[in-house]
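Hi support team,

I've been running sequence recovery on a batch of backbones for a student project. Most finish fine, but this one hangs at about 90% for roughly twenty minutes before it completes. I'm not sure whether the input is malformed or the queue is just slow. I've pasted the structure tokens below so you can try to reproduce it. Let me know if you need the job ID as well.

Thanks,
M.K.
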């Protein structure tokens, strides 16, 4: 194989060679069914992909880079994260991907996406992490929050494929692009995806602790941080409260600024979601309302099922 002519090309080629063998094409339902991408998660034959790629299917056709095809069984699917686990019979030819640390991502990090856009198998695109903690509509209308934004080209058919650093470590699962947008692709952060995938693999479904708010990351005024002795200079601005949800019953309102849950600073909606895990039956929420500090106790429930 010819050597790359420059360091960037060499790094991108190396990343593609590391993660590429793990990538698969997933299809079901014939010409009118679904088609997308996925990748090998472990040597036991578990694959990761998007929930919308396998929607409505209990079995799918999995195509590997060497041309081999195998029937895969859908083990579990989760609309909350647009994530699904598929299992094929384990063979020595499986090449599991290696995960990196998505919590360490920063805007500007170089990444590649590998997938099957428009049926063009095992396509590699290159770009950077453009932003973090993005919120966008999911396939069923629910909000997908905590998304990684990238300008590595994401097109129909890429869904479910890996987003990887230049060392080949997977840090995201590509899930969406904005119609009409250029350079606006999104991926489920790898650490969050793994936590959900483990539940899908072991139980067939995932639990989602929930208080019933929507929010966005917000920078706090420095004088507020000093005046109220806040634990950090960032918080989560509540943009919506679900009627009848625990947050509504506890009195949370739009424009409340949440700064801590159970004493732990929260700077993003994803941080709140993580803080809720294992916190049933209730959490202490510290917030600012109209510039005044408050603390309320909010019950934790399982999020109602989402239809896709």
């Amino acid at each position: 194989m010819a050597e790359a002519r420059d360091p960037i090309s060499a790094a991108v080629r190396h990343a593609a060679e590391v993660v590429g063998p793990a990538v698969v094409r997933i299809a079901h339902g014939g010409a009118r069914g679904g088609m997308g991408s996925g990748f090998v998660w472990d040597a036991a034959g578990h694959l990761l992909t998007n929930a919308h790629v396998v929607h409505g299917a209990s079995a799918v056709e999995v195509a590997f880079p060497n041309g081999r095809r195998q029937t895969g069984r859908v083990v579990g699917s989760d609309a909350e994260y647009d994530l699904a686990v598929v299992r094929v019979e384990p063979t020595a030819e499986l090449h599991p991907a290696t995960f990196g640390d998505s919590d360490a991502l920063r805007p500007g990090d170089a990444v590649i996406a590998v997938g099957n856009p428009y049926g063009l198998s095992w396509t590699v695109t290159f770009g950077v992490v453009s932003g973090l903690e993005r919120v966008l509509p999911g396939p069923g209308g629910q909000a997908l929050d905590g998304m990684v934004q990238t300008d590595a080209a994401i097109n129909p058919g890429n869904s479910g494929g890996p987003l990887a650093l230049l060392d080949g470590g997977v840090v995201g699962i590509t899930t969406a692009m904005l119609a009409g947008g250029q350079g606006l692709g999104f991926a489920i952060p790898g650490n969050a995806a793994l936590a959900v995938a483990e539940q899908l693999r072991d139980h067939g479904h995932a639990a989602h602790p929930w208080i019933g708010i929507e929010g966005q990351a917000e920078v706090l005024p420095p004088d507020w941080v000093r005046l109220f002795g806040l634990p950090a200079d960032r918080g989560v601005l509540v943009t919506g409260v679900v009627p009848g949800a625990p947050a509504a019953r506890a009195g949370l309102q739009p424009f409340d600024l949440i700064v801590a849950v159970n004493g732990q600073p929260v700077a993003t909606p994803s941080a709140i979601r993580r803080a809720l895990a294992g916190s049933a039956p209730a959490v202490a929420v510290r917030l600012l309302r109209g510039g005044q500090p408050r603390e309320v106790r909010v019950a934790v429930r399982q999020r109602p099922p989402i239809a896709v």
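--
Follow-up from support: It reproduced on our side and the slowdown came from queue contention, not your input. The CA atoms of residues 29 and 57 lie 8 Å apart. No action needed from you.
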